[in-house]
Specification:
The chain has about 280 residues and is of the alpha+beta class. Helix content is about 20%, strand content about 30%. The protein is globular and about 65 Å long. The C terminus is likely disordered.
Amino acid sequence: MTRLSTVVVMAADGVTRPSPKEYLAYGVAADLGTGYPCAVDGAHLAGVLAARSRGDAHRLPRPDGGRLVVVGAGLAGLELASDAHDLGYRVTVVEAERTVLPGLVSPATAAFLVDRHAARGVPVLTGTVVTRVVGADGRVVGVETDAGGVVEADLVAFTCGPRAAHARPSVRRPTPWLWSRQAGHRLQLAGRTAHPDVTVLRGDPTVGPFSRFCFRDGLLTGVESVDHDTVHRAARHLLAARHDVTMDDLVTTGFDPGDLGGHGRFTSPAWTSPRPGTR
């Protein structure tokens, strides 16, 4: 409620407190009870957890070489898998979609992340549906998949089926930029990069930082960066300015979004080659 221009907040104990500004950040929770793919037989066995953030990795029991299956390869799932691996778990990720971070990144960047996780000993099984949680004596021992096999597990963490923690669960606002730490890398996204017609690579994913410029219908829609902070910051400024940027525009500046965004030049060793290749 409001009184003139002052926001008044009523707490659960009935006490009201004035505040000049409030942010409602309810967050989300993994829903194990309803909605595919989390509503599976055995989801309530001991050892089955709901996880929605990387911090949940640090609330897991001591690993002692234990096996963790993470269901869902979105941001929460991949970050949880990465941190749990660092803590000593033997981790496998199972994702029903045919790519990781579905709807967030381009196929090329998704493939890069799968490779990086696998190189650290964390296999990611894409296009694989968990059909049942397998238990013994009331505790989880693995997950059965639509491939017909069982992935053994001492713990199973569901990161799928997000349910908004407020009274309007249909509300969802796309995020214009985000970042994620996983598999030893810093992934940074600016704009919309999931379904590009053409992507242009700057840098070399095999040796160091890189960025992938994503175009749709001839216009720049977003930039994916890995360990490439200066490019990410410049791309955010450029996209926020609502410029209609074409590939030719960026070629003339050596693919430096800082030149087009009007916020000064951001320099990086990745800008040294004369013209990018496309892939």
